[in-house]
Design a protein that fits this description.
The chain is α+β, with helices and mostly antiparallel strands. The chain is built from five helices and four strands. Helix content is 38%, strand content 18%. The longest helix is centred in the middle third of the chain and has 12 residues.
Length: 116
């Protein structure tokens, strides 16, 4: 399995952050939000971004030593996690309900393994 992270921004952003945060992941960027919309990702509301759940996720990340740097791209875009097979079929999709909402990677891998 090859892991590819696609972020909203410029190639220089992927170069700067991916090497530090995810050296074994291929990181690509897209400067336009078209790809986000094609996969059904949406912009978060104020409640989704800085409401109780988003703040709790931020506090949890802070406690683990993660710090928010300068944002790039659309700061309101909610993230998603997708597993796409070699022929382009989406095998797993997770749409984040709020800022900092990410699936556990073990759960993602378990779901994918069940489908293969």
């Amino acid at each position: 399995m090859q892991i590819v992270a696609i972020g909203l921004g410029q190639p220089k952003h992927a170069e700067r952050y991916c090497g530090q945060l995810a050296p074994s992941v291929t990181c690509l960027t897209n400067e336009e939000p078209d790809l986000n919309r094609e996969y059904g990702l949406t912009r978060g509301s104020l409640l989704q971004l800085v409401g109780p759940a988003g703040l709790a996720n931020g506090a949890r990340a802070w406690g683990k030593g993660f710090r928010q740097g300068k944002s790039t791209g659309d700061e309101q875009m909610l993230p998603g996690t997708f597993v796409i097979d070699k022929v382009g079929m989406v095998r797993y999709a997770y749409y984040s309900a709020n800022a900092g909402d990410h699936p556990e990677i073990t759960a993602v891998l378990r779901q994918v393994a069940q489908q293969m």
